[in-house]
Specification:
About 5% of the residues lie in helices and about 50% in strands. With about 375 residues, it is mainly β.
Length: about 375
């Protein structure tokens, strides 16, 4: 199992990155098992937020590369981001003034404080649910899954003895989430939770709905890692990979695409983008910028142009890869933004969180869709 959690990885690499501000210049099929399910009934207890916190609209900073950044308050730590059902972007933030925030495509930000009873909560993943609300994870003691309507009404559901991380909408009308305790969780919109134990004890991070009606997730054991697949009935298949995966998303080519570090935890050699078919065939594409630190890359999403877009956490870039494997990199304006999670917005742009400098970034796509329908790698 990995010695460090995902947030410890990010804390470690971010601190090193700030000490060495010019780091980017210097370092230029599977086995199947049916998993036992544990049902955890939850009685939803709505908590009404009196009023949202209106954050003054920041001054956006456009750059020559088509990137605009919207600064937040100093000290904010941003994590997940998703497109909401209201035409805005929603993201999680760990700060003293807000926990969930909303940004319009024009850059107006509204913050919502979540009155959770959990101790030292870390707000992590967030996704749009099938019920028109946003669902998010709270990694704390006790851990919780949260739900917030676009009007700001909050409901929390306790997840015993676990550490939920990423969350996604499933093909069955439920929400599915990864968990540090070695399980995949499922929660209905009514709040009933079921947990499925993963055969390999590991740090389970990214999760996404696949084109085959199953959920796909990443496992980092610290020594040998895997890509996992779970059906909505709870049947799990694992596919070994040579590196250490982070985020994962469904591509336009009916395959799954994921972020991967190579080497060992102490000697992460470089970062790659991985592709796995629903049959388990894996292809890897090296990222041109070599970063010899854990979490060199983090988030990945499918873009509106038929390509995959990803964040380069330490190299301070946004990357783009076509389904044929051609990679283009876009440098961020500063040197310590450390982009984390990324999603496609309703305006045809890519939106991402910045972990080092608390900002929301927007990258406008200039090119037309490039997906040819064929994978040549």
């Amino acid at each position: 199992m990995s010695l460090f959690s995902s947030d410890q990885y990010k804390w470690f690499t971010w601190r090193i990155f700030l000490v060495l501000p010019f780091l980017s210049v210097l370092f230029v099929a599977g086995c199947e098992s049916a998993s036992p399910a544990k049902h955890i009934p939850n009685m939803p207890s709505p908590i009404s937020v009196p009023s949202p916190i209106n954050v003054p609209s920041p001054i956006s900073t456009p750059s020559a590369s088509g990137i605009t950044e919207f600064p937040l308050q100093q000290g904010d730590i941003l994590n997940g981001i998703t497109a909401g059902p209201d035409g805005a972007l929603w993201f999680t933030v760990n700060s003293s003034h807000a926990d969930i925030e909303r940004i319009t495509v024009q850059g107006t930000i509204t913050g919502f404080h979540i009155p959770t009873e959990s101790r030292n909560p870390l707000f992590e993943g967030i996704t749009a649910g099938p019920d028109g609300a946003l669902w998010f994870t709270i990694n704390a003691k006790p851990a919780r899954i949260g739900r917030i309507t676009v009007q700001g009404k909050v409901t929390e559901f306790t997840v015993p003895d676990s550490g939920p991380y990423q969350i996604t909408a499933g093909p069955d009308g439920a929400l599915w989430f990864t968990d540090d305790s070695g399980v995949i969780g499922r929660i209905t919109v009514q709040g009933t939770i079921t947990e499925f134990a993963v055969p390999t004890r590991s740090h389970i991070e990214g999760i996404t709905a696949g084109p085959d009606g199953a959920l796909w997730f990443t496992e980092d054991t610290g020594t040998t890692s895997k890509i996992g697949r779970i059906t909505v009935q709870g049947k799990i298949t694992e596919f070994p990979i040579p590196g250490f995966p982070q985020g994962i998303t469904a591509g336009p080519d009916r395959a799954l695409w994921f972020i991967e570090d190579t080497g060992t935890w102490a000697t992460r050699a470089s970062s790659k983008i991985g592709r796995i078919t629903v049959e388990g065939k894996i292809t890897e594409f090296p990222i041109p910028t070599a970063i010899r630190l854990p979490h060199g890359t983090n988030g990945i999403t499918s873009g509106p142009d038929g390509a995959l877009w990803f964040t380069e956490f330490v190299a301070n870039k946004i990357g783009r890869i076509t389904v044929e494997g051609k990679i283009t990199e876009f440098a961020l304006p500063g040197y310590s933004e450390t982009p984390d999670q990324i999603t496609a917005g309703p305006d045809g742009a890519l939106w991402f969180t910045e972990y080092g400098e608390p900002k929301i970034g927007r990258l406008m796509i200039q090119s037309k869709p490039s997906y040819s329908g064929l994978h040549k790698a």
